[in-house]
Amino acid sequence: MPNFASVALIPVRSRVWALAGGKQEAVSSTAMKCPHCLVEFHDEAHDIELPYRGPRLVERVPNRSYQIVWTAQTRVCPACGRAIITLVLHGWDPNRGNYLQFVQVWPKGTARAALPAEVVDPFASDYREACNVLADSPKASAALSRYCLQRLLREVAKVKPSDLSKEIDEVLASKTLPGHLAEAIDAIRAVGNFGAHPLKSTNTGAIIEVEPGEAELLLDVLEGLFDFYFVQPAIMAKKLAEVNKKLADAGKPPLKK
Ligand SMILES: [Zn+2]
User: Tens of pLDDT along 88-116?
Assistant: First the structure.
């Protein structure tokens, strides 16, 4: 039986605190998108161990001999000046070995561009909900987004109801989407590894493990499709209505439909 307590702590600590020379604060540099203003930036994240009755909080897992250590990671976005705070769980388990789990505590959720008024319910409300839960549960966010995408394809793109993968095939085959959107909607299946997770296609609202970036990609695709199906047609209809008004004012017949 290995000594889990030491296995759990030493490798994780050395990974995080190597830069700090054994001090309880470490600095690491990573690229990230600011959850407040969505600008991409490179910043040094400061990691500090959370104390509890002494220098370090150690969480013991019931009936197990290994421990969990928590750190707090702070960043400041150079573009908007807002703080980003993430709690990091440094854990170990027999199946995964050392692992890190990140919980973004500030801000709650990721800012996304506000939805234009042309985007109607239930699509708008499903999308907002998927944005709101993204930080706490990418799995739940991806499930809401997949469900919303399927509803959009069925009700607005008018594909024949089937599983999501076939519905995506049908909308791609119709060649109605602009190239960049077709490519992005196609990528959902590859990024989400639908081959290994068929439930993502057959039961779109199911809460299933997500791949890195999958939940964010789904939201990006929804935004693009909303623009294509709701926003751009509304803008064009408004412009044509203005032309027809000018024609009517000039005593001429309206544009042919
Ligand atoms: Zn920012």
Answer: 888 877 777 787 888 888 887 666 776 78
Q: Are residues 56 and 128 in the same domain?
A: no
The domain tally of the chain equals 2
The residue range of the domain holding 175 is 123-233
Cβ proximity of 69 and 96 under 8 Å: no
- How far apart are the CA of 30 and the centre of ligand 1, in A? 15
Other C-beta atoms lying within 10 Å of the C-beta of residue 224: 16
* 67 and 160 belong to one structural domain: no
* Share of residues in the chain with pLDDT > 70 (%): 86
Distance from Cα 190 to the centre of ligand 1, integer Å: 30
Residues with CB under 5 A from ligand 1 (ion): 34, 36-37, 77, 79-80
Q: Do 205 and 127 have their domain in common?
A: yes
Reported as a pLDDT band with limits 50, 70 and 90, residue 25 is low
Q: How far does residue 83's CA lie from ligand 1's centre (Å)?
A: 8
Q: What's the half-sphere exposure (Cβ side, CA atoms, 13 Å) at 56?
A: 17
